[in-house]
Amino acid sequence: MACFIAPVAEAVVVTVTKKIIEKKEREKYQVDSSQKQNQESAMETENNRFGTKLGWLAKLLWGGSFLLFIEHIWHGEIVPWPPFLTAMGSMEDTQAMLGEIATTGVSMAVVITVVWLAMIAVIKIKETGKVKEKKLS
């Protein structure tokens, strides 16, 4: 019915947080364009920045939410006239919709976040392996 609302809410929070963090990171890592070595090291650290990684989570959340939104339109659960959600037609349907958001929607948002955390963990493991290889060389 409206399970995509929970991931959308998380996506909004993550996107706003990402923008704030990226602004602070840009201020911290500003590089003088005349120094090429510093630019290259700045490019390497760009993928290591937390703002970039939050961007990945935002993309996962927005993408999944968009696909769910389209699926709900396809099944006639979202319509182009008010109240837009067919489940808001009666009190019983609205209660069922809120229950679905609280269970299914929150579960989907949690699963997406856990997958993102696993991605970050894998990247961290690979980065530590590269650092060890450089030290051995």
Extract low-pLDDT stretches. Answer: none
Helices and strands, in N-to-C order?
HHHH
Strand content: under 5%
Shape call: elongated
- Rounded Rg: 21 Å
Largest sheet: none
Helix/strand class: mainly alpha
Summed over residues and divided by their number, the pLDDT gives a mean of 86
Total of helices: 4
Separation of the first and last Cα atoms: 57 Å
Helix content: over 70%
Number of DSSP E strands: 0
Fold and architecture overview:
The mean pLDDT is 86. The termini are far apart. The chain is elongated and about 70 Å long. It has 137 residues and is mainly α. It has 4 helices and no strands.
Note the main attributes of this structure.
single chain; elongated; mainly alpha
What is the fold's blueprint, element by element?
Blueprint: H1 5-28, H2 36-46, H3 50-74, H4 91-136
Helix pairs in contact: 1-3, 1-4, 3-4
Summed up:
With 137 residues, the protein is mainly alpha-helical. It has helices spanning 5-28, 36-46, 50-74, 91-136.
